Amino acid sequence: MERLLTPFGENLNKDKPLDEYPRPQFVRSSWENLNGRWRYGIRKKGEEKGYDGEIVVPFSPESILSGVERNLSPNDVLYYERTFTYQKSEKKLLLHFGAVDYQCTVSINGKEVGSHEGGYFPFTLDITAFVTEGENLLEVAVTDPTDRGTQARGKQSSKRGGIWYTPQSGIWQTVWTEEVPELYVTSYKVRPDIDKGEIHFSFFYNQEVLPTYVRIFDGDKEIASERTRSGKCRMKIPSAKLWSPEEPFLYTFTAESGEDTFSGYFGMRKFGIGKDEKGISRLFLNNEPYLQNGLLDQGYWSDGLYTAPSDEAMIFDIETMKNMGFNMLRKHIKIEPLRWYYHCDRLGMIVWQDMVSGGGKYSPLVTAILPALNLGLCKKAVHLRDGARQYKLFARNDAKGREEYMRDSKRMIDLLYNTVSLSVWVPFNEGWGQFDAAKVYEFYKKEDATRLVDHASGWHDQGVGDFNSFHIYFTPFKFPKNHKGDDRPIILSEYGGYSLRVNGHMYNEEKFFGYKKFTDEKAYQDAVRALWEDRVRKAVEEGVSALVYTEVSDVEDECNGLLTFDRRVIKIPIEIMKEINGRVALL
Predict the structure, then answer these.
(1) Residue 143 C-beta-side C-alpha neighbours within 13 Å
(2) What is the spatial distance between Cα 108 and Cα 326, in angstroms, rounded to a whole number?
(3) pTM to 2 decimals?
(4) Degrees, nearest 5: CA angle 44-49-54
(5) Closest CA relative to residue 268, chosen from 340, 184, 169, 199
(6) In 3-state terms, what secondary structure has residue 9?
(7) What is the pLDDT of residues 493-550, one digit of tens each?
(8) CATH topology for 1-181+276-587?
(9) How far apart are CA 114 and CA 125, in angstroms?
(10) Architecture of domain 185-266 in CATH?
């Protein structure tokens, strides 16, 4: 396989990679980034701990940018260690991990301080009682079952190829410390209400509720302030400026809770469903019909795998797609670092967020054969029921795995609740580990009533949810109703997948995967234009409310991207793609 470096990875500072503040909506001033050069070792379970050399954190050992390029097997333990300096303080010291795949234990100066399970979620440990003045030793031990378990793993596979990719393990998001007072805010939720011109805050604390003073700013101008003793408040936003992809306006705020102070931001916007002037059910933004025209975004990098080489790399993908005329990205089977969502918020890119798929070994009957027959017939929507009697068929027979899915869904919703740009939750994709989707839909709506839910993206619709969701690659665009009277908006949640071979920028020159393959650049560009003009325009005219083209970039063997895997080639000129999209947006 080719070792492809992105331009961003080529310029990596191994001593200070991804050095930006990792949590832009919840910023404190006293923090230290621990990314950089650590020691690592890989040993079989049961063997004595040992170290093999240097690894660049937060890149997984399977990636090029880690400097290791070794796979972690389910029978291995991955060990990390580094030292850091601590200056004695009256404050608490918190240790934050952005994400570690999959299970880890953390020690300070030889004493275990905590553990965590779940490869896509941040966790925090209070290490105040374990650190000493001067140099301290931080150690992490990681195990990862990859596809031998039923945990959330997405497209990671021990047998990579086609639409399944090289697995990654260990630390893959920023590690950092932060000082806080004895009593402090652990998190907060912010909810805009554009109809009333209000913003609602809920603050959560490590011990007791603290009096909290909130100040809101429009640029440098303070426009509102309030003190609350309950941890909750609602504040009027005079002549509120609404957030949209065209005008992604963000308000900032500061909060003082006793000795704890921090800053953040929010946007005034509303996602919903309504009827257009023709009586067609559509997605709405800020109480108006709004075509969400986006792409599948898998968030893989040729040199960093799950981890973008830099902040600039994340910005490049988002800005390039926006400059092409897209206004939405469906983050596919992966949860990104919080900085990615921040850039979507400030640049004006709507986000659909998939839950990461898990479960056992998927049945081709569920994931391929029946869906293919269904799309081929295109006369009546036929979907498998996904309740308890079908747990085994849907690879969800493991009760612990189902419980873990619900736990992780709650984690994801809480983690991303404040994201301004996040419009849609996608609990299940194409039947991969799907179960009880109607109940899961209700759970998502209970946890977050401010967003829409595509409960079964592609197929195995359970007749609920906010959408009628279709994935169509090979057949004409036809959208059969799931049941009589089904008035849910229709979304084309995956389509396209046109692949252009770009020699010298392919991970695998021998195997070239795509839904429709091209080797000539002009033929590829003409085909993309024809797809939009002959099929996409008509679909939108007939009632499709959202579009998700496959995809932002190539990923390993899969060459469906508008960008190559190494981000060095844009396959269709930006101005051409923008003009094509503009013709759809005018509808």
Answers:
(1) 15
(2) 46
(3) 0.97
(4) 95
(5) 199
(6) helix
(7) 999 999 999 999 999 999 889 999 999 999 999 999 999 999 999 999 999 999 999 9
(8) TIM Barrel (3.20.20)
(9) 7
(10) Sandwich (2.60)
